[in-house]
Amino acid sequence: MSDEAREAVGDYRFGFHDPENATIRFDKGLSEQVVRDISALKNEPEWMTDLRVKAYHHFEKREMPSWGNCSELENIDFDNVTYFLRSSDATEKDWDDVPDDIKNTFDRLGIPEAEQKWLGGVTAQYESEAVYHSVREDLEEQGVLFLDMDSGLKEHPELVKKFFGSVIPHTDNKFAALNTAVWSGGSFIYVPKNVEVEMPVQAYFRINAKNMGQFERTLIIVDEGSTLHYVEGCTAPTYSTDSLHSAVVELIAMKGAKIRYSTIQNWSANVYNLVTKRGVAHENAVIEWVDGNIGSKLTMKYPAVLLKGEGAHAEVISVAYAGAGQHQDAGAKVHHLAPNTTSSILSKSISKNGGRSSYRGILQVTPRAHGCRSKVVCDALMLDSESRSDTYPTMEVGNSTADLEHEASVSKVSGDQLFYLMSRGFSEEEAMGLIVNGFFEPFTRELPMEYAVELNKLLELEMEGSIG
Amino acid sequence: MSDEILRVENLHVSVDDTRILNGLNLTINRGEIHVVMGRNGAGKSTLASVIMGHPAFEVTEGAIFYMGTNIEEMSVFERARAGMFLSFQYPAVIPGVQVGTFLKKSVQSVRDEELKGRAFRKELNAAMATLEMQKSVLSRYVNDGFSGGEKKRLEILQMLLLKPTLALLDETDSGLDIDALRIVAKGINSVAPEAGCLIITHYQRLLDHVEPHFVHVIIDGVIAESGGPELALKLEKQGYEWLENPAEA
Question: What is the domain range of residue A457?
C-alpha cells in the first residue's frame, strides 16, 4: 500500500478502495423479487430458488436476536444494503485475466504471492462473487473438489443438495435466513476418503463497494479419514456508511476426518459481521475452529461444533481485539451429543480505548453422552480502564459422568511489565504491542507462519499512536 | 574532571507523599564499581529505580546527571537507549513472549541497528556460554516459570548483550547459590571495565567475586558512610547499628 493510500485511510491498512466498476448491480433493498432475480441470474435449479424464497419469508418474520448487542443490531438498515453486485463476468484461473483494478486489490493484500508460496488453492471473492479461483493440480488429481459455491452448485448439485443447510438450516436464526435467501459466492470443498490435504487452502473475501452486503456461503465436506486446513481472510475499505457481512459456514467431518478452519477477520470498523459457523463431527472426527476477530464494528460469531459421533473432538481457539467503537461478541458453542466426546475452548480477548469484548459460550452435554470431557478457558486483557470485557458462559450438563473444567480471568497490563520492557529500550507502544502479541500467542502459534507474522504486525499497528 | 558517567546531586525522592531519599549525592566514573548497602527500606532499590526513570517516583529536589546531562525529562526507554541498564530484583513475567525474540528486539531498540541474524546469534551464543546458560531458555517465555536463579541469569545475559554504559544491579545476588553467584559475578566483571556499575546488595559474599572501588551505606535516604571494600566486611561483622547510633557504639 502506498503512503498516500495509508494517509487517506488512517490506521486501517486495508481501508483503500477501488472505483466501483460493477457489471451488474441490484438496487438497494430486499424483496422476494430481488431474491428470485439473484437465483435467476445464476441459473439455479428450482429447489434452490424455492429454498431462497422460503428463507426470505422466514427472514422477514424472524425477530432479531434478543441477546448480544441488541441496540447496535437495531441500527442495521436492511433497506440501505446492496444485496448483489457482480464486478467481473467470469471467475478466472489466472491472475492475469482478472480485471486490473480487482487484481490490484488482491496484489495489495498479498494474495497472489501467498498462493505461490504456501497455499494449495485459492478463491478470491470480490463483492458477491469469486473473481479468481485455482487449485493445485495434485489435489485435483486426488479428487479434491475446491470451487466457489456457485460453481459447486452447478457442477455438483447432488452433493450440494444433500448437505446445503443440513448443519445450519435457514430457520436457525435471522441472519442464517438472510444468508440462505441472498447467498452468493463462498467456497465449496469436498475431500474424498483418505486424502490428506497438506497445504492449506484459502479463501479471501473483499468488500469494495459502499453499503454492500456480502453473504458468502461455505460448505466443506471432508470424507472418512481425510484432513483439510482451510484459511479465510477478509477486509473491506473504510467508508463512513456501514456494510453488512453475513456468512454461513457449514462443515461436515465424516468418520475419522479432521477439519481445521482458520479465520482472521479484519473487516474495517464500519462492517457488521454477523456470521453463523457450525460443524458436525462424526465418529472420531475432529473439528477445529481457529478464529481471530480484529476488525469490524460489531461481530457476533460463535463457531460451533456438534459432536455427533462417539470419540469426536472439538477445538475452538479464538481471539478478539476490540478497539475504539468496536464490539466483539464472540465465543464458541460445543454440543456433546455422543459418548466419550471431548472438547477444548480457549478464548482470549483484548479491549482498548473504550472497546468492548464479550465471550459468549454454550457447552452442552446431553443425557446419553456419557464420559465426556471439556475444558473452557477465557482470558481477558484490558489495556485501559475505559474498556469493557464481559463473559456469558452457559453450561447445560445432562449427565453426571462429564468431566468439565472452566477457568476465566480478567487482567490488566501491569506497571511492572511496562517499566521492565521500557527499561529494555521498548517505547510504551512497543511494550504494549509485545504484551498483546504475547497474550495472543497461544492462538498465533496455531496459525501458519505467514499468518502469524501478519497478525503480529497488525496488532503492533493497533498499538501505534494511541497511547496518550 | 575524570570520565564521569553518573552524578546524583542532592536527590530528594517521594512516592505517594512518603519521602524516601533525602538529599543523596553520588558520582560514578567509568570503570568504577560502587556498592550500595543498607537495611531494608533504606531507599536502595528506590535509588536504582529512580535513576532508571520509574514513573511512580517523584523527584522533589536535586537532579540526576548522566554523561553530563540532566535526565529529568528522559523517559525510561530513552534512558535505556542512551546506555543505562537496570538488572531487576524482581524481573517482570511477560507471558507468550519468547526470550529469543525479546532479546533480539531489545538489542535492536537499544543499539538502534538492524541486527544480522547470524551476527546476533554468534554474540548471543558467546554471552550464553559465559553465563553457562542452556539454549532451551531462548524458546521459553520471558521469566515465565523461571526460578530465582534463572531470572537473575537472564538479567545478566541482557546486560551483556545491551553493553550498558551505566549498569544498575538491584540485589542481583539475592537468592543465588554459590555457582550462580560466581557466574553472575563473571558477567558483571566483563561489563565493568567499560562502564560505571552500581551494585545494590545485602551481602558481602558477592564481593568475594566482584571487587568494588567504593562501598556506600544508605541510612534514612542519604549516604551515611562511604569507604572501600573493608567497609562491607565491617558491616558483615557488625551490622548497621554503629552507623545509626554512633554515640552508643
Answer: 415-468
